[in-house]
Design a protein that fits this description.
single chain; alpha/beta; 5 strands
């Protein structure tokens, strides 16, 4: 898996805070379908790869995901409890557009990461090209990877 090579090379010099998006990365996302996050199909191969990475010393796994309504935060947490319980609850950052109004998902994630204080290298895995572009263009010292990097 290419991402493991990227991560292990970074870990030779730095600790890593790895932020993983949910929808389209570890949970199936079907455009235009109901937002029943608790019923989303898990992408088990990606979840298993993230779980394998979570065992690396110096790497901390986080979830960084967005939803439209506040109540969906709990649904996403229930889904994570079921399919990715190895990601600790205090490392799950699910941002709601109902609370954070007038920002795109890309800008919500950008604002969050700008405020995230760490001595670690930040790596983000996302499937949204706008998020990838926004983070890559506006944050220094970050590595943003497309979800396809999880595929062998």
């Amino acid at each position: 898996m290419h991402i493991k090579e990227v991560i292990t090379n970074i870990l030779k010099k730095d600790k890593i805070d790895l932020f993983v998006d949910m929808d389209g990365v570890i949970a199936a996302y079907e455009f235009g379908m109901p937002l029943d996050f608790d019923k989303k199909r898990p992408l088990l191969s990606n979840i298993n790869k993230i779980k394998e990475l979570s065992k690396l010393e110096g790497l901390t796994i986080h979830i960084l995901s967005c939803c439209k309504k506040d109540y969906q935060i709990e649904l996403k947490n229930q889904w994570l409890d079921k399919y990715a319980p190895f990601i600790e609850k205090d490392r799950r950052f699910i941002l709601s557009k109902e609370t954070i109004t007038d920002l795109s998902s890309a800008n919500m994630k950008l604002n969050f990461l700008q405020k995230h204080k760490t001595n670690s290298k930040i790596v983000v895995i996302d499937d949204d090209n706008q998020v990838i572009k926004t983070l890559g263009n506006n944050l220094q010292n970050i590595i943003v990877l497309q979800d396809s990097e999880l595929i062998d």
